[in-house]
Design goal:
single chain, alpha+beta, 6-stranded antiparallel sheet
């Protein structure tokens, strides 16, 4: 694969071609079109030689288009491109034409175009469109594109996608040492998160519960030393206590209370190993105001008292 760095004007020209009749509003120097914001990083010319498969994955371009007051921004590539493209609607909605039929894609939608596949889509200020995108190729590209077998997939709304696309854009803009590998890793992570969302959201309502468990696990790790009310948490998420405990145990193998205790005991072990804080103070730090109760609980989990554990290492 031959690397050909693109000048700012070449980049602007390629975007102007996509802008249709609105080219007079395009600023080729700042890469800003009036009424919208464009933030993009480019590495290769628009058409990448797909015959070269020695590289597992390379991100050739990545960017973000956000509509503000511009009425519309249209992209039409009726012969497609020579590489793959992944687009993610971060907020608002976007209009994609599939087989000539317009489809409004809401926030959280992932759209994938394969080499040679016709492309026609538009963003509108009225729809408050905010879209991230990446062009990529390589021997692993087809497997990554399978995140959307039919070209469209529900990826869920998450700020993490924006963070990852933002990092890809930055890597391609600054081209610091290792940027190719880092941009590829971020794209792989985007696709992995999309696959996780698909796995957690597929099936009936019962299969959707892991998202609730995931949030609970995150909360317990962030607030391990605080009181956790299973009843309050279950009610907040529209579940009965028994249902929440059942689903939580099904995913983690433990009840919520036992899971919190495990977190506390692991934290206590770390503090005993790496600090000189008294056992009573460690007990308080991990959420127990009764040092004797903490010691009994710790012995039950670890098989020895906190003091013995501290000196055993």
């Amino acid at each position: 694969m031959v690397v050909m760095l693109v000048s700012m004007h070449e980049i602007a020209d390629s975007i102007v071609e996509d802008a249709g009749s609105d080219v007079e509003d395009f600023d080729a120097v700042s890469m800003n079109a009036r009424g919208m914001t464009i933030n993009a990083g480019y590495m290769f010319r628009a058409d990448v030689d797909m015959e070269e498969t020695a590289v597992p994955l390379i991100v050739t371009a990545a960017g973000r288009y956000r509509m503000i007051s511009r009425e519309r921004f249209t992209t039409s590539r009726f012969a497609g491109r020579h590489d793959y493209q992944l687009l993610y609607v971060a907020s608002g909605s976007a209009m994609f034409y599939r087989d000539g039929v317009p489809r409004r894609m809401p926030a959280g939608t992932c759209v994938v175009y394969r080499p040679g596949e016709p492309q026609h889509y538009e963003y509108r200020a009225a729809d408050h469109t905010d879209v991230y995108w990446a062009h990529f190729s390589g021997s692993d590209a087809a497997r990554l594109a399978d995140i959307a077998p039919d070209g469209v997939a529900d990826a869920g709304v998450s700020v993490e996608y924006g963070m990852l696309f933002g990092r890809m854009i930055g890597e391609l803009q600054f081209r610091r040492a290792g940027y190719e590998e880092l941009a590829a890793l971020d794209l792989r992570r985007v696709v992995a998160l999309m696959r996780r969302h698909d796995a957690e959201m597929s099936g009936d309502d019962a299969r959707r519960m892991p998202a609730v468990v995931r949030d609970a696990v995150s909360y317990l790790h962030d607030h391990a030393a605080e009181r956790f009310s299973v009843a309050d948490y279950a009610s907040l998420h529209g579940l009965s206590v028994s249902r929440f405990i059942h689903v939580f145990r099904e995913v983690t193998g433990l009840s919520p209370k036992r899971y919190q205790t495990e977190i506390r005991m692991n934290e206590a072990r770390m503090l005993l190993e790496s600090t000189d804080y008294p056992v009573a103070e460690i007990a308080d730090m991990v959420g127990y105001d009764n040092p004797l109760y903490f010691s009994r609980l710790f012995h039950g989990h670890v098989g020895m008292s906190p003091s013995t554990y501290r000196h055993a290492g």
